[in-house]
Amino acid sequence: MSDDLRTFCAVAEAEGFSAAANRLGIGKAAVSKAIKRLETQLETQLFHRSTRRISLTEAGEAYYHHARLAIQQLDAAADAVYSLGQEPRGRIKLTAPMSIGLAQITPIVAEFLAQFPGLSIDLHLDDDRVDLIGGGFDLAIRVGSLPDSDMMARQLGFLDSVLVASPEYLARRGWPSGPSCLADHECLVYSNERYAEEWVFQRHGATQAVDITPRFRVNSAIALHRAAVLGGGIARLPRYLARESLQTDSLVLLLADYRLEAQPLHVVYPERHFIPAKVRVLVNFIQDKLAIGSPQ
């Protein structure tokens, strides 16, 4: 019965049988059978079905509210057992931006799985901010300021950024002597940031915001890094992403006496009455392993 309730909630939240099947990792036929069993037991129709989409009936809306609470209570009961000494078990679905996911989250996940054999992780790397509820995600790693939402959040630290360009670009266009000179340069921006075209510099306690007119915008930090290495222009990159290129002189550090405003790093998860042990353990593990502190 509990599996059918979870399937029902997944269909309601994903607004489709196929999407719910992908979310749960089961076949579409199994999803259809689970919904059919519930509707037979309840002797009522839970979904309006059409060729394009499905939606909850009035009865389905009422049932979803109570089913969601029932699942939370079942999970809370299991969590209470695990807290008595048993290791958490189950699958965790996690999403993170591509660059930090590859560079930092993936190694942490590998270490985490070795330490907790009863858990498995489905890691989804995407520079777009995916829908946690609709996608069935337990938690997400988010860079930058968070929009207002009903999500819970824990700040993990801050990401330092650096201003860089390739030696070839600097030989062709010259070096900027200060933030205001960037208006005369070809700038590359990461378009997924909320304030992608405003770069904030700090020096000697003073703050200077510069509006950037980008020559190139891209929604991937990895592609942004590549464009900078190839001489496309000046880019603001996370320090962890630029580190190796700076060490090999593929990129050059610019305006070293200025600091770029640090970006907050959060883990966010859907609001609920309790946080499952498996999610709590992973959040604590990530926070312990990430070598990210407060801005200087």
UniProtKB/TrEMBL annotation:
Q: Does the keyword Transcription apply?
A: yes
Ranges of residues in domain HTH lysR-type = 1-57
Q: Which GO terms describe its molecular function?
A: DNA-binding transcription factor activity; sequence-specific DNA binding
Q: Does the keyword Lipid metabolism apply?
A: no
| Superkingdom, natural source | Bacteria
Query: Which of UniProt's keywords are assigned here?
Result: DNA-binding, Transcription, Transcription regulation
Q: Its GO biological process terms?
A: DNA-templated transcription
Q: What InterPro entries does this protein map onto? A: LysR-type_TF_proteobact-type, LysR_HTH_N, LysR_subst-bd, WH-like_DNA-bd_sf, WH_DNA-bd_sf
Give the similarity note: Belongs to the LysR transcriptional regulatory family.
What is this protein called in UniProt? Answer: LysR family transcriptional regulator
